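To the wet lab folks,

You asked to see what we're planning to order before we commit. Fair enough. Below is the target structure as tokens, and below that is the sequence we designed to fit it. If anything looks off to you, flag it before the synthesis order goes out.
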């Protein structure tokens, strides 16, 4: 119990010091920031190629850490490291038979973004993103040729490393950050284009709530 009280006292003292620092004369836009965020992705696919392939959006988790590095008052650099779930719900035809599929991919996303900070509470973001595929899961139902179709999905030559683009906006209310982004892949999901399963590029909208600290 004594250790718990000491830990909470330390955290509370740190928060008081941070709040005092926020009232200093230095513009917040010129201070190094770091924090955590969590929220949701609403993902789908575009530039999709597959016989009768039709996709609907899917919800997933997004969360991780970010750092804001000032470059003067109005510019900055914001790298992030996020665990991000994407995917789609689809129907189509494979090897002459219909199928339905719900695909969930889990990626490590690393956005590298330029900050444009016209005022303290508002930040615009634009940049590039590297994604590494950690896991892919398919829940599917096949038609009459289910064994062959199942084998095609298991042999899917998925690309592990994908580059993309991102734009967004952060609204800061003291230590809390409300973020909205639009992100899309610039490369398709297949490694060498040899797979018969649908070829596509991910596109997703991301909404998160974060908490940041100032140095």
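Sequence we intend to order:
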């Amino acid at each position: 119990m004594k250790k718990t009280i000491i830990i909470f006292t330390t955290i509370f003292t740190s928060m008081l010091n941070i709040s005092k620092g926020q009232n200093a004369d230095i513009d917040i836009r010129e201070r190094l920031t770091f924090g955590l965020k969590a929220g949701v992705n609403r993902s789908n696919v575009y530039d999709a190629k597959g016989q009768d392939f039709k996709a609907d959006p899917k919800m997933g988790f997004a969360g991780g850490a970010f750092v804001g590095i000032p470059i003067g008052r109005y510019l900055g650099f914001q790298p992030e490291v996020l665990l991000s779930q994407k995917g789609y719900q689809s129907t189509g035809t494979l090897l002459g038979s219909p199928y339905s599929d719900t695909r969930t991919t889990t990626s490590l996303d690393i956005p590298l973004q330029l900050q444009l900070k016209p005022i303290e509470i508002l930040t615009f973001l634009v940049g590039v993103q590297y994604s590494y595929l950690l896991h892919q899961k398919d829940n599917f139902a096949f038609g009459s040729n289910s064994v062959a179709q199942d084998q095609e999905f298991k042999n899917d030559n998925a690309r592990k490393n994908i580059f993309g683009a991102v734009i967004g906006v952060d609204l800061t209310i003291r230590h809390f950050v409300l973020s909205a982004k639009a992100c899309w892949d610039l490369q398709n999901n297949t490694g060498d284009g040899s797979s018969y399963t649908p070829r596509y590029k991910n596109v997703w909208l991301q909404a998160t709530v974060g908490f940041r600290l100032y140095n």
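Structural context that might help your review: The first strand starts at residue 33 and ends at 49. The helical segments are 2-22, 146-154.

Thanks,
Computational group
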